[in-house]
Design brief:
Elements (H helix, E strand, L loop, with lengths): L3 E4 L13 E7 L2 H9 L4 E5 L11 H8 L4 E4 L9 H7 L2 E4 L1 H4 L9 H10 L15 E5 L8 E4 L13 E7 L17 E5 L12 H7 L3 E5 L9 H7 L2 E4 L1 H5 L8 H13 L5
Parallel strand pairs: 1-2, 2-3, 3-4, 7-8, 8-9, 9-10
Antiparallel strand pairs: 4-5, 6-7, 10-11
């Protein structure tokens, strides 16, 4: 079995990640770091997601350091967030935590070299992290529940009964692996993501055309306005940085707040038949 795993998203890690070094092209926020620790990795490389507001894009590095897990981040302008193969091929390390630094991982190092160092290190699998606080919150009480407005910390938490909902996520707006089917798991009415400061090849907003193809309004908020990995921050703090054509047709505009955006989506949804 290889000593390392390369994946587009930390949300896909399974039992095979136990005790291995992982390169996951997810953002480096606390929720993604929590998922890596929960998968019992021995070390992980994520993406710095443009760092952004309150340095949330690398907030997971300190979180993992407290658990004794070496961690580093790929510079978002060196390789596409959400694309593990691209991060491995051309990514450059931008940030490291103290545990990774002690193993020789340095900012400016090619990702492939850093991953090899982490894979070769004699490290124990991470221990089970403490549970995180609630990661799904209703923004507005509506009926039926499938017509809700909700904030979730990760797009991986979207459920089948979210069909028709307006969903504000803490996830980056990149299309994992460039595969259209990964844009979102349910046919929601609208989905809002964090732009991860756009990054290499504008990957941070690449979900938006794929959502358009499904008739789903898609938008991103600036990584410098809202903390990546926090759905409530997307809603409360975010300002719109990019839109797809469906969102524009529903009255969305770049530069408005996410609160205003949700209001416009909700007004447009009232004119649409239930899913």
């Amino acid at each position: 079995m290889p000593l390392e795993i390369v994946t587009d998203s930390v949300t896909t890690l399974g039992p095979d990640a136990h005790g291995r070094a992982v390169l996951a092209a997810s953002h480096g926020g606390i929720y993604a770091a929590y998922l890596a620790a929960r998968a019992s990795v021995k070390a992980v490389i994520l993406c710095d997601a443009g760092v952004g507001r309150d340095r949330a894009g690398i907030g997971g590095l300190g979180y993992l350091d407290e658990l004794g897990i070496p961690a580093a981040a790929v510079g978002h302008r060196s390789a596409r967030i959400g694309d593990g193969a691209d991060c491995a091929a051309r990514g450059v390390i931008s940030y490291v935590n103290a545990s990774a630094l002690r193993l020789g991982v340095l900012a400016g190092m090619p990702v492939r070299q850093a991953l090899a160092l982490l894979a070769a290190a004699d490290l124990a699998p991470s221990r089970e992290p403490p549970p995180l606080q609630e990661t799904r919150r209703a923004i507005e009480a509506t009926a039926p529940s499938s017509r809700a407005i909700c904030a979730i910390d990760s797009a991986s938490l979207v459920r089948p009964d979210d069909a028709g909902a307006i969903v504000l996520t803490g996830s980056h707006g990149a299309l994992p692996g460039g595969r259209p089917e990964t844009a979102i798991k349910a046919n929601v009415f609208a989905a809002v993501f964090n732009d991860a400061d756009f990054g290499a090849d504008d990957a941070g907003i690449s979900r938006l055309p794929a959502l358009d193809a499904r008739g789903i309004a898609g938008a991103t908020v600036s990584a410098w306005s809202a903390r990546i990995g926090e759905g409530l921050s997307t809603y409360r703090d975010g300002f719109v940085s990019a839109l797809n054509a469906t969102a524009r047709a529903y009255g969305a505009e770049i530069g408005i707040s996410a609160v205003e955006l949700v209001g416009r989506f909700a007004a447009a949804r009232r004119q649409e038949p239930p899913p």
